[in-house]
Amino acid sequence: MTEKYRVTVAGCGGMANSWIQYALQREDTEIVALVDIKIEFAQAMAEKYGLSCKVFTDLSEAIRETGTNLVFDITIPASHYGISTTAMRLGCDVFTEKPLAESMAECRDIIRISDETGRTHAVMQNRRFDPRIRALRQLIDSGTIGRPGYAGADFFLGPHFGGFRDVMDSPLLLDMAIHTFDQARLILGADPISVYCHEFNPPGSWYAGNAAAICIFEMSDGSVFCYRGSWCAEGAPTSWEASWRITGERGTAVWDGVGAPYAESVAPGDQTGKFMFDYVKEEAEVAVQDHTFHYGCLDEMFASLEEGRRAETDCRDNIQSMAMVFGAVESAKTGKKVMLEDLWR
Ligand SMILES: NC(=O)c1ccc[n+]([C@@H]2O[C@H](COP(=O)([O-])OP(=O)(O)OC[C@H]3O[C@@H](n4cnc5c(N)ncnc54)[C@H](O)[C@@H]3O)[C@@H](O)[C@H]2O)c1
Fold first, then answer.
1. Which in 39, 41, 185, 249 has the greatest CB count within 10 A?
2. Is pLDDT at 104 greater than 80 in this prediction?
3. How many degrees, rounded to 5, is the angle at CA 202 between CA 197 and CA 206?
4. What is the DSSP string of 252-313?
């Protein structure tokens, strides 16, 4: 029997494992080809998962020979644009790893080609599919702290990757901050309007490029989002989900990225005359979900195809998070505030 989704996996490196494992547990999905510019990586992946599909070094050939209708792009960022546009032009829908592409011009072009071909293009933003961030969003949405005016995210970790991140420019902003910026958009439910960014390489950094940044974003709801991050911070690491504080009209929501979020807001009743008001604490309700992170995002991407709608992380949405990244890099270079709407609208 031919399965509904005939998938070519492009890029057979580390991250491909999660995607392949996910595809294997779907009854309506078959991996029909593995592609890697290093054919031995594709062969090794086929062997690892006992796949009898063909292996290729060229995506177009793989799509044409196997009747592929869906491409998983898990190649390196520099290849995302080429893989995505080739796949859509050959009639395939595309689910890609972050980042959408390597420049704003490429991001816009991907949207244009998705419009022209009518093919879906959605991006992996796994950190959105964390039940705790959904609970935080719900806490804010339900009015617990009133209208938010400020959101702050602290991200301080010291991973010793070795490899390309150690030598690239702006490793934190270009390789990691997309996650936290995208999380901020979800938490606030707002679009990015402008950014001012100061990027630097702190003493003790083992990166050639700037591994730390402070960014101030103005958001469409009038709130300010402040990102403080470092990838060369030894000791007392924050969570990879970042540590969050959101202040609103009547209270504050806190999520340390480890436990469950909670809010403290002004207690009901008359507080007249008090120097500091009394507060009530409310724990967020974290739902139990079978599929979270990569699996949760892939569930949503497949559901969007099933239901004929755009995925939550459709390229047209994701370009806003990309604008936050590229805008921050530009601001750091020029020392000026950068308006973001022109980049993504
Ligand atoms: N969402 C997350 O949390 C997360 C975490 C890690 C990596 N990623 C992303 O996943 C992607 C892959 O990362 P990785 O760690 O697996 O990298 P990797 O280097 O281990 O694997 C990438 C593979 O793609 C292959 N490749 C490169 N260009 C190609 C092309 N044009 N056609 C076919 N194959 C090509 C390479 O040979 C390599 O085998 C990156 O975009 C990265 O940013 C996301």
1. 185
2. yes
3. 120
4. EEEE-SSS--EEEEEPSS--TT-SS--EEEEE------SS-HHHHHHHHHHHHHHHTS--TT
Question: In the predicted model, what is the mean pLDDT of residues 12-38?
Answer: 98
Neighbour count for residue 108 (Cβ, 10 Å) = 17
Nearest CA to ligand 1 atom 40: 76
Q: Which domain holds residue 255?
A: 127-290+322-344
Domain-ending residue, one of 123, 154, 185: 123
Q: What is the enclosing helix (H) or strand (E) of 198? A: strand 192-200
- Residue 213 has a pLDDT of 98
Residues with CB under 6 A from ligand 1: 10-16, 35-38, 41, 74-77, 79, 83, 97-98, 124, 126
pTM score, whole prediction: 0.97
Same domain, 169 and 198: yes
Nearest residue (CA) to ligand 1, atom 31: 79
Q: Please tell me the distance from the alpha carbon of residue 240 to that of residue 213, in angstroms, as a whole number.
A: 16
Asked if residue 203 has a cis previous peptide bond (ω within 30° of 0), the answer is: no
CATH number at residue 16: 3.40.50.720
Average pLDDT in the 257-276 region?
Answer: 97
